[in-house]
Amino acid sequence: MEQIEKVIDENKQGKPLVIEQKKSNTKKLFIESYGCQMNMNDSEIVASILANEGFNTTQKLEDADLVLVNTCSIREKAEITVRKRLQKYNAVKKNNPKMKVGVLGCMAERLKEKFLEEEKIVDLVVGPDAYRDLPNLVEEVEAGRDAVNVILSKDETYADVSPVRLNSNGVSAFVSITRGCDNMCTFCVVPFTRGRERSRDPKSIIEEIRSMQEKNFKEITLLGQNVDSYLWYGGGLKKDFKKASEMAQATAVGFAQLMDMCATEFPKMRFRFSTSNPQDMTLDVIHVMAKHKNICKYIHLPIQSGSNRMLKAMNRLHTREEYLELVENIYKIVPEMNLSQDMIAGFCGETEEDHLDTLDLMRKVKYSFGFMFAYSERPGTLAAKKMEDDIPLAIKKRRLQEIIDLQQEHSLYRAKEHVGQIQEVLIEGTSKKSDQHWKGRNTQNTVVVFPKENYKMGDFVNVKIEECTTATLIGNAVGYSDNN
Ligand code: SAH
Ligand code: F3S
């Protein structure tokens, strides 16, 4: 009652009535995300921005005043999935005509105003750098007008926005450290949808992690399209670093330093990071990983193809030999390191020989996991403009299957290496297959399940690994680890 009186009071002095909504969160936001972890984290930032505008999140689409879908453009299939979802919203809107629908993320950036024409259900289109403008845009939409903001930014990192953790297990969380990508791989739409690369102030990163620690989170994954390229020199685009003052250049913080700072400041917190681009990864990062027990011994190190000809066509700025040398050095410095890959089958002009090079490289590295895709041409990319998508779908699919089959063999090979060992596992939830078992991950990111006994969510437990499948280790707890 008091709050409302205060608002009316302020209102007499000419302040907008919207303050009343700010104080009592009455509106319902349904937000869902497709695509990468960065999108999941962005949705948490959006939920935080809209919480200040009177929106509480709801899990029930039918109840929503505002529905937001955070979209992915990486492959055509991802876009088709989102379009199907929009049809579902359409059906729900029939019973709830006041419901407004907004599209966020990469498809919003790629399609811009066209979205409003193509999908009548859409009222709002907001690109990844424009979320701060959501309060204004939502106001427009509530007044019955369509609203679009897809301006990309030079310095937006949402450093000061404290994300509302959505669907959180309360144990592990994402913290974004860079936005955008400057790499211009010829097949990839990300540089167009997420703009140029910029890094976030390390102080704000440390503060966010501190607040997560206070809330009892135990594991942080530092996120970026290309984390090894992290470079803080006072703000601004990575590509403008050379123009920065001598002082700014001398005091710049790179990824290895950032990791070292985080791991030192929070010795009880586990750290992971994703994604690493081989061309930007330096051995300092591996040395920092070796130095800190709390940095997980796992790197997602996509290569896309094992053929030099394809790497060149893809504008991946390293050769197969340089990649294998990096891998050898990684295994030398941290022998227990596990690696995972992304591969694209059937990129423009890929021959059978190129494909065999990919399989051969996989045999040399023996990745523990893989994320494998058939090439999907994306409008606006250099490959779409200059190269022919000439590999028939049947061949793409056959090659992809061969890559997947080989990865399965390697995943089992790597899983077996863990059997017999005692490994520290962070409990993240109940096993999908049995409510009598916990699930968590070891430092190498492999899922471990074991009987619950008296352990709880968020405990670090030493588990003796007894057996395995390709994707899961099965064991028994032998006690708490010294990290609790
Ligand atoms: N920043 C990350 C990757 C981002 S996209 C990196 O450095 O690798 C995630 C993965 O999607 C890519 O690694 C690639 O394997 C895949 N991908 C990207 N564009 C694709 C396309 N046009 N067709 C098929 N797969 C694609
Ligand atoms: Fe895409 Fe290459 Fe960047 S895959 S996200 S352009 S590193």
Q: What's the helix and strand layout?
A:
Layout: H1 2-12, H2 18-23, E1 27-33, H3 37-51, E2 55-57, E3 66-71, H4 76-93, E4 100-104, H5 105-111, H6 114-118, E5 124-126, H7 134-142, E6 147-149, E7 172-176, E8 178-179, H8 190-194, E9 198-199, H9 202-214, E10 219-223, E11 231-232, H10 246-250, E12 253-254, H11 255-265, E13 270-274, H12 283-291, E14 298-300, H13 308-313, H14 320-333, E15 338-345, H15 352-365, E16 369-374, H16 382-386, H17 393-418, E17 422-430, E18 437-441, E19 447-451, E20 460-468, E21 472-480
Parallel strand pairs: 1-2, 1-3, 3-4, 4-5, 5-6, 7-10, 10-13, 14-15, 15-16, 19-21
Antiparallel strand pairs: 8-9, 11-12, 17-18, 17-20, 18-19, 20-21
Helix pairs in contact: 11-12, 12-14, 15-17
The structure holds S-adenosyl-L-homocysteine and FE3-S4 cluster.
Residues 74-75, 181, 187-188, 190, 225-226, 275, 277, 302, 304, 342, 344, 373, 375-376, 378 line the site of S-adenosyl-L-homocysteine.
Q: How would you describe the overall organization of this protein?
A:
The protein has helices spanning 2-12, 18-23, 37-51, 76-93, 105-111, 114-118, 134-142, 190-194, 202-214, 246-250, 255-265, 283-291, 308-313, 320-333, 352-365, 382-386, 393-418; strands spanning 27-33, 55-57, 66-71, 100-104, 124-126, 147-149, 172-176, 178-179, 198-199, 219-223, 231-232, 253-254, 270-274, 298-300, 338-345, 369-374, 422-430, 437-441, 447-451, 460-468, 472-480. Strand 17 (422-430) and strand 18 (437-441) form a beta hairpin. The chain is built from 17 helices and 21 strands. The radius of gyration is 24 Å and the shape is globular. With 484 residues, the chain is an alpha/beta fold. The two termini are 45 Å apart. The structure holds S-adenosyl-L-homocysteine (SAH) and FE3-S4 cluster. Residues 181, 183-185, 188, 190-191, 225-226, 277 line the site of FE3-S4 cluster (F3S).
